[in-house]
TrEMBL record:
<dbReference type="InterPro" id="IPR050855">
    <property type="entry name" value="NDM-1-like"/>
</dbReference>
<dbReference type="Pfam" id="PF00753">
    <property type="entry name" value="Lactamase_B"/>
</dbReference>
<protein>
    <submittedName>
        <fullName>MBL fold metallo-hydrolase</fullName>
    </submittedName>
</protein>
<dbReference type="InterPro" id="IPR001279">
    <property type="entry name" value="Metallo-B-lactamas"/>
</dbReference>
<dbReference type="InterPro" id="IPR036866">
    <property type="entry name" value="RibonucZ/Hydroxyglut_hydro"/>
</dbReference>
<feature type="domain" description="Metallo-beta-lactamase">
    <location>
        <begin position="17"/>
        <end position="201"/>
    </location>
</feature>
Length: 306
């Protein structure tokens, strides 16, 4: 049975939005990660339902992928809350540099938000009447962070460790190192005394050792053939977009491969440009097989009803 301190509440979301972690004590009500833009009104409603008349004081973003910070802007408009982001992303957010931010590159969206402070590995945070150590978690994203509470042996792992894997290793799509960093983060987690992981996606879990074994195995599998990471990235990004818009034509999906840099890079690792139409059809067919997340309706791809 999963037991959390009374000061922590987890809003488990679907795969379009990351989980939100609400930590409340006498001095601060803080939300770690805010989900995707499509679900921002629901995120505000969940926080409001939990806090009542009390305001949200602080947003903490583990990293700035759109499914983790897409609710920032609406939450900031609902409450005059402080917002802490990874320090290495400060300039990109301050100038809203869409080349450095990942939203356009992944074919996703995020309403512009601001920040009041930054956090870096080694920082200490007091949230939910608990002390949290900020840990670096590059691999999935070079700027990503985790939060670790030694007293309660709880790790908020974002996308560095899920019960069955971890997030796409995006740096490898651009020819940057990511597998080695993910391996190092998993090794660092293995050295911590962790009884409970609150992941960025999926339910909180206590079978930490088994999750780490699966994650180590997956890193090795991806490193053996980087095209596997590229194919997984393309699948994830296509499904994500379909969960948002619900239906798209094959031609629109194909256009996204040209317009979204991360999708373009993943496709280029798999097939020459002239074969991308076949590539998209093959991937969608795999995603539509059996009880997969997508369905094919003539020349359209449709997200399967949950």
């Amino acid at each position: 049975m999963i037991t959390l301190p009374e000061s922590i509440r987890v809003f488990e979301r679907g795969w379009l939005s990351s989980n939100n972690v609400l930590l409340v004590d006498d001095t601060c009500a803080a939300l770690v990660d805010t989900g995707y833009a499509t679900h921002a009104p629901q995120t505000v409603a969940l926080v409001l339902q939990s806090l009542g008349a009390r305001p949200l004081d602080l947003i903490v973003n583990t990293h700035l992928h759109s499914d983790h910070c897409g609710g920032n802007a609406l939450l900031q408009s609902a409450w005059p809350c402080r917002t802490a982001i990874p320090a290495s992303e400060a300039d990109a957010v301050r100038h809203w540099d869409e080349t450095r931010l990942t939203f356009r590159a992944t074919g996703q969206r995020c309403e512009r938000f601001t920040f009041t402070e930054t956090i870096s590995p080694g920082a200490q945070l007091r949230l939910g009447a608990l002390d949290w150590q900020v840990l670096g978690a590059p691999g999935h994203d070079p700027h990503s962070l985790m939060l670790y509470c030694e007293d309660e042996r709880i790790l908020i792992s974002a996308d560095a460790l899920w019960e069955n894997g971890f997030g796409v290793i995006f740096p490898e799509l651009e020819g940057e190192s990511g597998f080695a960093e993910e391996q190092a983060v998993l090794e660092a987690i293995a050295k911590l005394d962790v009884r409970l992981v609150i992941p960025g996606h999926g339910s909180p879990f206590t079978n930490v050792e088994q999750a780490l074994e699966r994650a180590f195995s997956r890193v090795a599998w991806l490193r053996a053939d980087p095209a596997r990471n590229a194919k997984n990235a393309l699948k994830v990004l296509i499904v994500f977009k379909l969960l948002e818009v619900r239906a798209m034509s094959f031609n629109t999906l194909l256009q996204m491969l040209d317009d979204a840099a991360a999708m373009h890079a993943a496709a280029a690792m798999l097939k020459p440009r002239g074969e991308w139409s076949t590539l998209v059809h093959t991937i969608v067919e795999e995603l539509a097989a059996k009880t997969g997340p997508l369905e094919i309706d003539g020349e359209r791809v449709v997200a399967r009803q949950a």
